[in-house]
Amino acid sequence: MLSITSHIALADWEIQLTAIRAQGPGGQNVNKVSSAIHLRFDVQNSTLPPFYKQRLLKLNDHRLTKDGVIIIKAQQFRNQEQNKEDALQRLKQMILAAVVQPKQRRATKPSRNSQKKRMDKKTQHGKTKALRRKPIND
């Protein structure tokens, strides 16, 4: 059982974990041992509240398929148990990140004083550049 919050938890039957062979270097160990974990989680057929499901399905994430299945491949560690824990933690983080409401942006204007400072600075810079010119001989 994976606990998401104090009120929400996912049962073991909702998360499908499969051991697969890891990619990359590792010599004979990579060829013999299935230490990587392939996690599949069907969002639509889960016991998550409807709000969580909607937010997860709206995500623009490469780990979410068109069918609403989250696929996570964990192969960071050499140990299968550590990869299993890593995959479960990444699923938990993904679910929690999906339900965070983004802060509403309020349009603001620069203050009159900041605009005045900006224009004064431009004027001063222009005067400095004017001093670098060759003098005009009459």
From TrEMBL:
User: Keywords, A to Z?
Assistant: Hydrolase
Give a GO molecular function annotation for the protein.
ribosome binding
Gene Ontology biological-process annotations: rescue of stalled ribosome
Q: Where is this region: Disordered?
A: 100-138
- UniProt xrefs under Pfam families: RF-1
Output this protein's name.
Aminoacyl-tRNA hydrolase
Regions of compositional bias (Basic residues) in chain numbering = 103-138
Domain Prokaryotic-type class I peptide chain release factors spans what residues?
A: 21-37
Supply the NCBIfam families for this chain.
PRK09256.1
Upper lineage = Bacteria, Pseudomonadati, Pseudomonadota, Gammaproteobacteria, Thiotrichales
Which family does the similarity line name? Belongs to the prokaryotic/mitochondrial release factor family.
